[in-house]
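Re: duplicated header lines in exported structure tokens

Our pipeline writes sequence and tokens for each protein into one text file. With two proteins the header for the second block appears twice in some exports. Here is an export where it did not happen, for reference. First protein block:
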Amino acid sequence: MPVKRYKPTTAGRRISSVDTFEDVTRQKPERKLTIHRKKFAGRSNQGKITVRHRGGGADRRIRLIDFKRDKFEIPATIATIEYDPNRGARIALLQYTDGDKRYMIAPLGLKVGDQVVSSMGKGEIQTGNRFQLQNIPIGIQVCDIELQPGKGSQLVRGAGTGAQLMAVEGSYATVKLPSGEMRMVPKACMATIGQVSNPDRRLIRWGKAGRTRHRGFRPTVRGKAMNPVDHPHGGGEGRNSIGLKRPKTPTGKPALGVKTRHKKASDQLIVKRRKKGRFVGA
């Protein structure tokens, strides 16, 4: 949705921008479809920090999203389009004809009053409907894609993202992901027609440190500003370089351009790697 900029009354306000929320039709969520979000500040079940720079932030309630949409052949009406503080995309409240209510990730262009359906067979190709990849025409843009049939969507769920169905051959369908990667997915996997909503989220400028803290991110200190005992980049006099051939993590592992994906069984399903110029994790 459009991004709004305010009159620059402060230094932080001058460079910041906000989402307009024009598409949101309801302020409070369906209470029965939310649970309390417990904070762990990046710590594992052993109490050790496994993700740095996490903590604090505004209190949130988790919206229970139906990633499977396994109420097949039962039409549902879009009751509301809502804001979800846990993701960039909007979510839609589905009101099924049998009275059940569930949340789904809202595709771009979906409006209150529209009807959507999830089906194991063929059906009308319209935004919000969900079918198996083998029942979707080639070239259609899809989102919310499963990796294993019946497991629930795992791919293409971020705000503004969309994948393109390139081919269906044998037991697999070939999908072009937003990163540029071409991947084969079992053709029995489900996918939603359309592009994920709120594509302008990437244009938001947070403007000041406080807004980032509200999101649950704590400050990041440069390694070269530390002492040698605290970081491999630490130490030295004045504005020195890190003194290494390549950057390292605080634990001494290479930090830039290093493969983080090693010999996974699903590598054989990747037809083409992601676009050059981005970080390649394989």
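Second protein block, exported in the same file:
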Amino acid sequence: MDTFLKKAKDRADALGVHNIVVATLNGGSVRDAREAFGDGYSWFAVSNPASAHEKGLVYHDGMSQETQKALEAEGIRVILADQGLFQKAAIGGPPYPIGADVPEFVWQGTHKRKIDWHAVKTFGDVVNKVINKELSPVWLVTGTIGALMGDGPAVCLEITLIAADSGILPLNKDCLAISRPRPASHAPDTAMVLRPSKTPDFLRAFRIKDLLLVPRPDDHWFNNKRLWPNG
């Protein structure tokens, strides 16, 4: 069994968690996890639809309708959203209505604020940019999580919020969220035991109860490599 998935299953079993939320594009991650975990769990595959990429709301290609139908036929509940909370901050700032035209500069990503990490000297500089509305508060949250723990935890939080907002994921039970990065990201495999909440209650009801990071040899966070050039 995959070492990371075995550790994730052990944590789920130890904490009595049966709802498993997995970030996936082509279905591979959720299928691998279900095979490793075995029976006795409820599966939720979370992604963005392919149409979200076409609108410029996400960078990756999104999940195809074929993949969605195949997963649902296998008994996996698929939850799709055009943008997650943190994706809005990363690619476009404010959300855009489904079907609406997206400004060209959003798709080009020319206003992405992560470049500001190169310019600021202290955390206070970032906070001041938020106060002056040069950066969104959500970007500060996701940027801090990404800088301190990597993309994996941010993805786990985001997919759980998407699943909770959909009304499909139960809010009265803990869940285990899984994020397996694409090869180019150099991020650790991540699993988090969470008490989910809907996005408006994120800072009041959402809870992180357990965190599992399994690094790879080239992982930036565990090898003390700089997160950004000149950073």
